[in-house]
Amino acid sequence: MTGLLAALLLIQGCVLFRPTAGIGEVIEWSKVRGWNQDRHSQAWSALQQSCVRLASRDTNWERICLHAADLLSPDDDTARRFFQTHFTPHRVYGKTRRQQALFTGYYEPLLHGSLEPSARYRYPLYAQPDDLLTIDLRDLYPELEGKRIRGRVLGRRVVPYYSRQELDDNAALLSGNELLWVDDETALFFLHVQGSGRVRMTDGGVLKVGYVDQNGHPYVAIGKTLVELGELSLDEVSLFSIRDWLRSHPERVRSILHSNPSYVFFTARQFDSGGPIGAFQVPLSAGRSIAVDPAVIPLGTPVWIDTRYPGDQRRLQRLLMAQDTGGAIRGPLRADIFWGHGDDAEQLAGNMKQSGEIIVLLPKRVND
Question: pLDDT by residue (tens digit) across 129-172?
């Protein structure tokens, strides 16, 4: 009996003390590779945006943001010392203590559109429909925290909202909700993936559009679909290879796009020099904002990444702010870097598929 009890305790102990995925232990700053080489002042604007949301929510952040407000335009050394003074670095782990994360990128694409439909401009960009319900049961079911629950009323029941295929096949379902029309169905699909973009209108002006809601269906990467169909290899999947394939197979475009049932609704945004509004409801900073899984990394948190640029061996080691989320960004070892807009941003975002490590900077508590 004693041997059995010891064995049970040993098994129980293994369960109790098995490392879990997520934010791990504190590490020394000397273990943060590349830390002293970053241009920390370039992350300052993104930090200030995080403070807009966090200063009133948390006493530790309130203290940090008050100190940050006193530094109007710090140089790199001052900004670096600030982060070291007010935060502690923690490694992020996956299952079995794995550390290699997958980094992808996103950007603001430029489309061409019109406020009126025509033979050229025939693909609608939709605003949020009135019959789309947001179901919030977090108080009753805490396990639903962070889950996208959307639906519509059918009789006395709430049922899933229409899928991408259902919406594409029946334009009457969203009739009257058109924001504008664009001239390229593939470009429109990638706008759904990116979540925000710019549309050059027929009068020469540019309209910003951004994510406002989603139909509640899970995001399925069409690159994965093309790999499963044998049309592309895993190594060659990128924004550009997928786009080229779609434009080379117009007769199959709809069937491939419909393999992703997720559908995004948009809103027009005031045009200014700031970035698009992320899930944290602050403007994103090009090259300094990152999308994460908020169930793992709290939004607003500084995140250090150690990876490489796509296409070459240059190291990409820099500080960013967790200010956005994404349908494909799930788990502790997944992140999406926002690169801004323009040709360079498109190249970086479209080719980004790098491995690396994530370190999260958590605020020091008042009594630390």
Answer: 999 999 887 777 777 666 668 999 999 999 999 999 999 999 99
Pair of tokens at residue 268: 């027009």
CB 278 within 8 A of CB 322: no
Confidence (pTM):
0.87
- The residue written with tokens 């690159």 in the block is 223
User: CA Rg, the chain, in Å?
Assistant: 23
CB 204 within 8 A of CB 218: no
| Range in 111-115, 183-187, 270-274 with the lowest mean pLDDT | 270-274
Q: How many CB atoms lie within 10 A of CB 354?
A: 18
Q: What angle do CA 352, 225, 263 make, to 5 degrees?
A: 80
Q: Are strands 334-341 and 101-108 parallel, antiparallel or unpaired?
A: parallel
Residue 22 zone, left/alpha/beta (φ > 0; ψ -120 to 50; rest): left
Antiparallel, parallel or unpaired: β 302-308 and 315-324: antiparallel
Give the percent of the chain with pLDDT over 90.
Answer: 83
φ and ψ of 135, to 5 deg: -105, 115
Query: Which residue(s) pair with 321 in the sheet?
Result: 289, 302
Number of other CB atoms surrounding residue 59 within 10 Å: 11
- The answer to whether the beta carbons of residues 363 and 322 sit under 8 Å apart is no
Strands 264-269 and 101-108 turn out to be unpaired
Q: How many Cβ atoms from other residues are within 10 Å of residue 151's Cβ?
A: 17
